[in-house]
Structure formats: structure tokens, C-alpha cells
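Researcher: Structure for this, please.
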Amino acid sequence: MGEESLRKRKGEDNRREDGQSIQSHEHQTMNLQKQVGLISGICMIVGTIIGSGIFVSPKSVLANVGAVGPCLTIWAACGVLATLGALCFAELGTMITKSGGEYPYLMEAFGPIPAFLFSWTSLLVTKPSSFAIICLSFAEYASAPFYPGCDPPQVVIKCLAAAAIVVITTVNSLSVKLASYLQNFLTAAKMIIVTIIIVSGIVLLAQGKTENFEDSFKDSKVSISSIALAFYNGLWAYDGWNQLNYITEELKNPYRNLPLSIIIGIPLVTVCYVLINISYFTVMTSTELLQSQAVAVTFGDRVLYPASWIVPLFVVFSTIGSANGTCFTAGRLVYVAGREGHMLKVLSYISVKRLTPAPAIIFYGVIAIIYIIPGDIDTLINYFSFAVWTFYGLTVLGLIVMRFTRKELKRPIRIPIIVPVIVTLVSILLVLAPIISAPELAYLYCVLFILSGLIFYVLFIHFKFKWPQKISTPITMYLQMLLEVVPAEEVTE
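Model: Predicted structure, C-alpha cell format:
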């Protein structure tokens, strides 16, 4: 009797294990099922764009143009440019319904080499440096209340930023559901602080606090270089407008929801950003804003005292939310590049138990921590923006090229050709202007790094040398066992 019940229990356990593995198998294919609707799409765009940029970049934009008028103009112009760029990506996303952002579009337009160089640069430079920038901003705001009247030590800021990266990476590696719940909560929190700042600004304007807006173009220092650098900093605050293109395969009815999310989400962010900047200038002069270590905290101290502590608290939520959103979508590019054979195989694997792209996320977190060690925020933003706009411009140029080379592709959305032409020209201007007017070695290093990907492409992908496989195969097997990960299923079109 005892043996019989034991055998039954074993049979049930085996069936449960089989069920578990079947369930896991289904979940692997579910990873790319269409689960994101219109509201989720808008929240993804708004939640990822509004991060630390609006709380850090106002200083950098103002420093480059020197006056309130040009500063507000650049914030509005950045919103218009982000919207135009996103409309180009809407046409691309509905024409080529693959996840991975720019990667599949570059692949279709120009072939595997530009696509590989994009994934190479994104994996090692742009995505981790973006993650690092956001976490450094989080650390500045989180530590500011503990050091009243002086700047927090760099060691404290960098240790806090590294801790944030570790926590976010861990959460995203452990559970997709936990990461998405965290994102929903943090997005709600960031909209609270945005509303508080805007409403406070409107009330102050109604009370007649308009002295900082008089002669708003006086003392402005406008040159092609300064405008380009101001645009870099402003556009970094808008970065994330292409996030939905990284998860196109998971969008319900992408032909409708992708463009609608963009048309609603990005103008909403633009209005918020301009109103937040106006609110800042109601209580701070240009000089005071430039001297502030954390602009939103200074605003809170002057307007919301004694409840000023809520500003750094909610800004911390906002920056962590943006970092979480960035981390959440980062694995998708690696997954798609791995699917095409352009990345280390193990980076495109997913966890058997937790169904997350754990190796990609862990790798991404490690690289981001390396970026924290040397960098201050402004240097990182300029370096990041240069590389990003090189590929944005190339991708939008690909849209123009495919109008002539891939006429057979269905285009549910067809934007006027002038829009991608404008975005391409602005991208070229943004990439070239700082190099011509204020050449720095950092830009040369960035170009050399992007081109160095060609060496890896020729050796490991074109010629497929055997010796790297001999080295990587046992490492891959070891990591598979250690992390309990397996290759994700290919998506059948």
C-alpha cells in the first residue's frame, strides 16, 4: 500500500514536472505573443521617456544656449523632432513587424553589416551607457537630501548608482511579471511628481512670477555647435520614443497601436517637458538653475517647503522607473541579434524556470557598472548621443532607400517623404556639428569603436573561425548549467 501510494505520488510529480516543462515551453513562445495594447504602449513610451532627463538636462540645455527663451524653444523643437523621428519608426515598424528596434530595419535596408554594427554598438556602448546615466541621476537625487548645502561625494553617488543597477538587473532577471508591476507603480509615481511641478508652476505664474521671462533671449549664446550640444541634451531627455519598436512582435494590432501610441505619447511628453521648464524658471533665474546640483530638488525647497522631501522621493521613483523600462526592453535586441547569429549564443538564451533573458540582462548590468566608474553625466550624454544619432540617421535613411528598393513591401502607414528627409538631415547636422566646431578625441574613439565591430564581424560571422567556437562552447555549456538557461524558440513569421 505504501509502495503503491509512493508510486502514485511519483507519477503525479513526474506529470507535474512534465506539465511544468510544457508550461515553460509555451511561455517561451508566449514571450513574443501579442500582449501589449494601446494603453500599455502609451505607458511604455511615456514611462521610459520621462526618467531623469527632465530633472538633469534643463541645466545642460541652458548651459549651452545661455538664456531662457532659446532653452524653452529647444525643448519644444526636441519634442517636434522626436515626434517626426517616431513617425518614421512607425512606418518602419508596421512595414517590418519584427522586434529589435533599428536592427531588423538596418538588416532589410542595408544588409547584415550595418545591422551588426548597430547591435555591437548598442550592446557595448549606447544601451549600457544610457542605463548608467539614468542610475547616476537617481543616485544624485537620492543622496542630495543627506548633504544639504553641498554636493554629495562622487564615491557615494557611484556606489548608489551601482547598487541601483544590481537591484534592477536582479528584478528583471528574476521575473518579467515583477518587473512589469514595478514599472506600472513607478510610472504612476512619476506622473504624480510631473503634475505637482506643473501645477505649482501654473499657480506661481498666475500670482505674477514672470520676471525671469522678461527679455528671455537676452545674453543668449547661439552657435551651430552650442545648438547641437543643447539638442543632444534635450533629445536625451526624449530618448525612448522608439521603445515600442523593440517589442513590435508583442503589440496587439501593431498597424493601429504603434502609430497611435506614438501620436498620443510623444506630444504628451513634449507638453509636460515645456511646462516643467516654465515651472523651474518661475522660481529660479538662469544662474540659479545652472548652480543647482539637482534642479527639481531646488524647486521643491522653494515652492513646497515644508513638504519639499516629496520631490527627491518621487524623482527617485521616476529615474528608477526609467532605468527599469530601459533594462526591460534591452534584452529584446540581444535576443533578435542572437536569433540572426550576430551575438554570443548564450546572450540570446532565456531562463528555464523564470522565462527571462537573464544572461543578456546580467551582461547589460555588468557593462553599465563599468560605465559608472569614470563618467560624469554630461560627458556620458554627449558620447551616448553621438553614437545613437548616427544610427537613428542611418535607420531613417534606410526608410528612404526602401521606398525605392523594396517597393513590394506593404506599408499600412506611409508618411510624406519630406519627414524622413528632414530627420536624416537633422541627424547628419547633430552628428557633424560638434565634431566640426569643437573637435574632441572622444568622438574619434566612438567612431573607431563602431568600426572595430567590422573586425569581429569578418572574423567570427563572415569567416566563422572554428577556434572561437571551441573556446565559447564549454563556456556556454557552463553558463547554461549555472544560470539554467536554454535557447529561445525562433519566431515563425
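Researcher: Any notable elements?
Model: Confidence is low (pLDDT under 50) at residues 1-28. The radius of gyration is 24 Å.
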